[in-house]
Amino acid sequence: MKVAELMTPNPDTIVPEATLEEAARRILEKRYGSLPVVDREGCLLGLLQVEELLPHPENIPFSDVEALQLFGEWVNGEFLEDIYRRYQKTPVKAVMRTDIPRLHPEDPVGTALQTLLTSEVRHLPVVDQGNRVVGILTRSDFLKLILRRR
């Protein structure tokens, strides 16, 4: 079986200049876990995952204390309003991942599964020979495949 048979074709994408507010709203409305980031021609530039939109704990340098960091900056405990303001002004390109594996429609699904399990991304963009996004493959797609085989 090839990736083309399992992927979701023509996924929703976003441009790097869009705000994080726009991206977060689309992710929530459509129940996505990520959005491929593309240029005006549809070529893959990166991937914005839900994880990049949330604060994450970091050790404060030279300390045993852990605090929350968002987009490379520290945030305090009263951070919801601050996060929203940052979402309104921060472009997707500031936090998108660019070091992502990508698949091609003709790749075997076994190779795709191995890539998915060994990388830190949960959604793999599928690109054509010109690097244009033509699909997306997720961990859920493999669960559907397993259940379909019963």
UniProtKB/TrEMBL annotation:
<dbReference type="GO" id="GO:0016301">
    <property type="term" value="F:kinase activity"/>
</dbReference>
<dbReference type="InterPro" id="IPR046342">
    <property type="entry name" value="CBS_dom_sf"/>
</dbReference>
<keyword id="KW-0129">CBS domain</keyword>
<dbReference type="InterPro" id="IPR000644">
    <property type="entry name" value="CBS_dom"/>
</dbReference>
<keyword id="KW-0418">Kinase</keyword>
<feature type="domain" description="CBS">
    <location>
        <begin position="7"/>
        <end position="65"/>
    </location>
</feature>
<dbReference type="Pfam" id="PF00571">
    <property type="entry name" value="CBS"/>
</dbReference>
<feature type="domain" description="CBS">
    <location>
        <begin position="96"/>
        <end position="150"/>
    </location>
</feature>
<keyword id="KW-0808">Transferase</keyword>
<dbReference type="InterPro" id="IPR051257">
    <property type="entry name" value="Diverse_CBS-Domain"/>
</dbReference>
<protein>
    <submittedName>
        <fullName>Histidine kinase</fullName>
    </submittedName>
</protein>
